[in-house]
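Worked Example 4.2. Read the sequence first, then its structure tokens.
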Amino acid sequence: MSGERVNAMKERAGAFLELASELADRGRLDIASFSVQQACQLRVKASLLRLTGEMPRIHSIRELLGILAKRMEEIGHRDEAEKITGFVRESRGVLVDIEAAYTESRYGLAVATESVVREMLRAADRLFRLLEEVENSVLG
């Protein structure tokens, strides 16, 4: 798949994550949580596009990661699939919070606390590193 598109998506994901951190620092927790969700969604989709040529039109981070893990399993990369599913298992609570931010912050319902947003930011950082590791492992 086009490396240019993947790189643009990764860059945008990084920009959303940076923006989320800045917004959290300024106390704009609702918009920060939304930006974390956008960052994660774009970053997972970039990995899916790079590794499988697919980019599903869904928003659920857990569902997107499930698709990625399944594809890794199908092409013989069991270790990478397990790393992804392990991340989802250990991060389930914060991933639920990140997914909820997609809807709640858009409609003025978000009530995330600073500690929750900081946890989201840490999880997003771990996710970005995991996806880079998976891509490097699969593609060399």
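Now turn to a second chain, presented in exactly the same format:
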Amino acid sequence: MKIRINNFGAEPPTYLYETPLHADRQLNIVKYSPNIKYGKLQEYLDDGWEDIGNSIKKDRCTIDKNCFTTVEAKYVVAILTYDPKEGCTDLKTVGHRVLELTKKDRETFFSVYEIAAKMLCDQDQS
């Protein structure tokens, strides 16, 4: 299940290894923005970054090549988890990212939050 309104969305988290039990009870609320690295791999290589296969490296920094292939970047603003014991959702913000949103972005964030919470609760009812 995915939701997107303007530059905010809700989507299932991705896991590097094994997906945990009850992962279907969680959604990440993400903010999309233009990817400043999009299409600039060659610029980085010309600037002395070393191609090491799936990523590039310079000094002590490594960047995955996928960072150069998507038009948009996204980051998690909050994590929404359904609590079946309480029959409701819990929202955990990431740092103070919610506090850094503009008024318009906060309105969109809360619209996505409301829809995502309802979806998680309705999913449990079925």
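Notes for the reader: Residues 3-35+71-125 form one domain. Helices lie at 41-46, 103-125.
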